[in-house]
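Lecture 7 notes: from sequence to structure.

We start with a single chain of 83 residues. Read the sequence below before looking at the structure.
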Amino acid sequence: MDSADRTRVRDAPRSATGREWEVFVREDADGPLKHVGSVTAGDADAAHDRASDLFGWAARDVWLCPADETRRYTAHTLGGETA
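Now the structure, written as tokens:
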């Protein structure tokens, strides 16, 4: 299998009112974590509350990752952006 030629996506801040958090949920003990979206909140506890309301109300686990500490790489152009 050929490996993809990926370049890093340069993200601009997505919120001027708080920190952006990526949200992952696991629905059952044997299931994988799935990225379900993102929330804006000042800290991890507030992000958990917001994420639980929006995405994790039936999830077994909710994981949060600060978006500004997450690095994205892609093999294609996203929405006309250049890498």
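Residues 6 and 23 are 23 Å apart (CA to CA). Keep this in mind for problem set 3.
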